[in-house]
Fold each of these.
Amino acid sequence: MIITLSNNKISASINTIGAELIRLEKDNQNYIWTVDETYWNKTSPILFPIVGRLKNDAYTIADKKYELPRHGFARNFEFQILNQTENSVVFVLESNSETLKNYPFEFKLQLEYELDGNELKMKYSVENRSEVTMPFSIGAHPAFAIEDSFSNYSLQFNEAEEFVSYELENEQFSNSFRKINSENGQINLNYSLFEKDALVFKHLKSNELILLNKNKPVLSVQFEGFPYLGIWTKPNAPFLCIEPWCGLADNVNHNGNIFEKEGIQLLGNEFNFQRKIVINLL
């Protein structure tokens, strides 16, 4: 089912499967890319309870092995609607017999979308309903439409800093990294940047960036409290994914113990984890 929100500035459409944002419009322009399966079959999946790929698609807890696909399972489940107004909606996914097979923790995952002027606020909440500490990761994966030549676009970060991207090898970190050329916090985009998969920044000072087309602002993404950021596209694809993460893919040398995984979040019993991403259409 598709849920559509609107105010007097913008509108958003979200699929109850995965609570996935599929459209974000202002002045009849859709800022989220339209799916073309030649490139990719998603628009803005939620990444939970892992971000990225596990080594051998598996992890261990107390020497017991569990399997999880890349980016976890939340994006494939039907979310329930907890609350809905004209300009907001709250989706919820709770642990069930299917999730417990591959992730032995009781949880409540909540994703709220709220329109506020030209902004879409995406609020994430994870509640641990287990008796024990729950390891998890969570991340966003919105794909923004590229309407022009890709090389006309750039990213302006709110801090001038050195951009070091940690490289992936078969979707796992390989212990190599490279410096990305920038000037005053601005990275000019071209497809060659993504020949070895996503750009992954682990040590950003910035918590906001602006997507520019010919130096004209298109939209901004605020990601306070997300320690990692992925930027991704595919060769010649008409989209750019801007992905704030609380979690990372495995390292090629990881021992499989999820509690010792780089970037893992550890949530105590009955505790609640909250983060917010704001997309502002400029």
Note: The longest helix spans residues 97-102.
Amino acid sequence: MYEWLDREIVGHGRLPLLFFLLGFLAAFLFIRLSVRMIRAEVSWWPGNVKPGGHHVHHVVFGVVTMLMSGVALIAVYEDGTQTTGAVLATFFGIGAALVLDEFALIFYLQDVYWADEGRTSVDAVFVAIAVTGLLLLGLRPLELINVTDFRDSPDPWVRVAIALSSVINLLIAAVVLLKGKIWTGLLGLFVFPILLIGALRLSRPSAPWARWRYTSKPKRMLRALERERKWRRPVIRAKIFVQDFIAGTPSAVHVKEAAEHAKVAAEVELDHVVHAAPPPISLHPVASGTMDGLPGPGSST
């Protein structure tokens, strides 16, 4: 294990990235334990920070920690050692975890920590962990692009080819995202075949791509709806179960069993996301709620 760390992590200059991930995970797990202890009103656990009666959210401490450690990282960029970078990256990871744990508060500009919208924070944390893990394994985004070759090659045609491949990569990624496949697009930036498969496969029915391309193709839209409800249901249930296991069940739903809550919450989310995309705005809009016999938003399929 030590030899692998020395060869793959230290040898490739990824020690700061490893410590960023460790600091991020430790801070996220600790803060989630803390807020759940506070929510359970455990008497011996320190409560919220309320100077003068004003609740200071931990996103504030996260922003300050990220700012201080980020400036320090920039300051030692030229002559700092990898060990120094690892220490500062740890604090940056701690700050990032505190910020992303309240990402939903920033996104919605209101305190939705224990509401259903609060799951957005957990999604943001999962994305950060996934991206950092892929980078730590040596994968790089836009894998078809080699920046070193672009910089070192004197041949202008090589540079043109690299630039062209980068544009193609980004365009395919844009198609995948427009089809509503966020995780496929994210992983595809590191593994090109995944990106290509995501671009070729059917769009999610409520995505912009479906709105532009499927509103005049009822059969394709129906296929997208059927696939979404068939395959997304277990995925959404599993995701909500993991989110609630890690972050706690939102206050809006009171159930005794987490598995039962995941089932109920999944059906609610499906009602929101599994519907045909509305047609694009045109001079002759289709009647609201229906499209060639397809159910409108919120209808069951």
Note: The chain has 13 helices and no strands.
